[in-house]
Amino acid sequence: MAIILNGARIRDEIKAELVPRVQKLTQTLGRAPGLSVILAGSNAASQIYVAGKTRAARDVGIYSETLTPPESVTTEELLAMVDALNAQPEIDGILVQLPLPAQVDEASVLMRVSPAKDVDGFHPCNVGMLSTGRPGPRPCTPAGIIQLLKRHGIPMSGRRATVVGRSSIVGKPMSMLLVAEDATVTTAHSRTVDLPAVCREADILVAAMGRPAMLTREYIKPGATVIDVGMNRITSRDAAERIYRHDAARLQQFDAKGSVLVGDVDPLAMAEVAGAYTPVPGGVGPLTIAMLMVNTVEAAERKAI
Ligand code: GUN
Q1: Which of 101, 232, 292, 302 could be 212's S-S partner, Cβ–Cβ 3.0 to 4.6 Å?
Q2: Rounded distance from Cα 97 to ligand 1 centre (Å)
């Protein structure tokens, strides 16, 4: 039987460890650590993610605020908001929720966040800190995956890892973090030749390409650890039946809601072939928010010393 890697349990552990650090910071700084989130427009998924971030901040004692410019916001207006937050001493962390409305130049807004307050770890300065092994904020989802692996005692040193997907948010930083743990890492993507064979080499397989249930049985080495970062909402009953052919409860969920969440890995293949895996939902998802709290606390700690 495969081990299910429990993201919610590790999230709770990480949050509990933050509470005394937040209390100490609150004494030292004379205020709670502060996080400001910019949530532009009305993307439904983003609203749910940001609500989760606000709840987690409250749980650990971080002050958080959410700024909600309208869908029609311009790049210049967002740059001005970021400038104001950069200058505000009681704000330690700034997060610009993605995606931004289509008319906005996302790269220049992300570049404008002060590297010291960049709790997403997206600023090129912090990408450079990661790639050169210097301390700094690490992107939350891949950093959470490293915590999940470490805290479940899954060795990385010397192991073969394949990361499928090369996004700046997950794939690329994931590969760099695995290299930093002394894994032997391949970054695979849509142009990779013979992707199943490249994936089958992996002791640790990370799926982060945003393609529902794409990695099937022939992509998974028996006994491998499989980390599924995918969060795809499926609205076709046929597709749901194909993917959850073994899971009546999921199909019932589909019938009740008209949709169901599916990762990037075929769930039945993962449960049958992997040695350990993250379920969707409940695997990787909870850790992203926990690591955002870690990055916010660390940004405040750097200020306090
Ligand atoms: N949208 C989806 N994931 C993320 C994330 O990790 N950070 C930000 N800022 N936006 C996101």
Answers
A1: 232
A2: 5
Asked if 178 and 186 count as a contact pair (C-beta separation under 8 A), the reply is no
Residue 294's nearest CA partner among 2, 1, 17 is 17
Give the CATH fold of the 30-114 domain. Rossmann fold (3.40.50)
> Atom of ligand 1 at shortest distance to CA of 99?
1
The closest residue, in CA terms, to atom 3 on ligand 1 is 98
Pocket of ligand 1 (CB under 6 A): 95-98, 120, 140-141, 169, 288
DSSP string for residues in 119-145: TT--SHHHHHHHHTT--S---HHHHHH
Q: Please report the pLDDT score of residue 181 as a whole number.
A: 98
What pTM did the predictor assign?
Answer: 0.97
Q: What is the pLDDT of residue 69?
A: 98
Distance (angstroms) between ligand 1 centre and the Cα of 158 equals 30
Establish whether domains 30-114 and 140-286 are of one fold: yes
- For residue 212, which amino acid is it? P
Distance in Å, CA 37 to ligand 1 centroid: 11
Residue 99 has a pLDDT of: 96
- At 208, list the tokens: 């982060």
Comparing CA positions, the residue from 85, 131, 75 lying closest to residue 106 is: 75
Q: Report whether CATH 3.40.50.720 matches the domain 140-286.
A: yes
Encode 51-120 in three state secondary structure.
Answer: HHHHHHHHHHCCEEEEECCCCCCCHHHHHHHHHHHHCCCCCCEEEECCCCCCCCCHHHHHHHCCHHHECC
Angstrom distance (rounded) from CA 20 to CA 30? 15
Task: Give catalytic residues, as residue numbers.
Answer: 53, 97, 120
Q: Residue of the nearest CA to atom 11 in ligand 1?
A: 98
Helix, strand, or coil here: 38?
Answer: strand
Taking the chain (305 residues) in runs of 10, the rounded mean pLDDT of each run is 96 98 98 98 95 98 98 98 98 98 98 98 98 97 98 98 98 98 98 98 98 98 98 96 95 96 97 98 96 98 90
Which residue puts its alpha carbon closest to atom 9 of ligand 1? 97
